[in-house]
Amino acid sequence: MVGLPGKKSDRSDPPAAITSRLLPVMLDEKRLASLGTLNILDFGRANSGSLEFFNQFSCRLCVLDAADSLLEWSAGLEARMEDPPSNQQMQLELSGLLSSMGAHRYDLVFFWDTLNHLHEHALSAFSGLLRRYLTADCRGHGFMLHKRGTEQMLRHMGMAGDNLIAVQSQSAATLYPHNRKVVNDALGSELRIDQGVLHGDGRLEYLLVSNTPKR
Length: 215
Hints:
Rossmann fold, Methyltransferase domain protein
C-alpha cells in the first residue's frame, strides 16, 4: 500500500463515532474482490485508524487533506462573484490545489465533508475535474449539509470499521451548504448520488456512483 502523507491529527479524547448504513454498500466484499488492487482517494487527514483500516485491502492509497486549502479558495471565489471565473479557469485553479491526486484513476473516494468546503459556483468545475480521476466502477462516500440551519463545523474524519466513522476533531468554520438536487445537477451525466441517508444532525450521508459506460 502506498500513501501520500497528509497532516497527522492530534487528539487526546477518544474520537466520536458515526454509524453508517452506506459504507457497507460501498465496501461490498465481493465487488471489491472483483476489482483487484484498489486505488483509493481519501480527502481526509492522515490518521492511524484509517491507515489500519485500509491495510486490510490490496490497495494504493492517496491521502489528500485539502480542507483548509479549499475553504480558503472558496472564500476567495465568493469575493470574485461579481465577475465569476469560468469552469475552465476554476478547474485549472482546483487542479493546482489537488495536484496530489497524481495520475491514478480511483475505485473508491472518501469525500467526507469536501463538498461543503466548495462554493456552489465551483461544484460543476470540481465534478468535471474529478471525473478525470475516476474509474467506470467508482463509488464515493461523504456528507453534505442538507439543512441550512445545521451547525457548521470543520470535521476531520477517518475510518473506524466497515460501518463506523471516527470524527477525529472538529471546529467552527464557514462552510457551504448544498442540497441534493444542486449537487446532482453539478455532477452532470457521468456521476450521480445513488443513495442518501439523512442523519439527525441535519447532514445527508450519500453514496456516489459513476454512470460512465464500462469499457
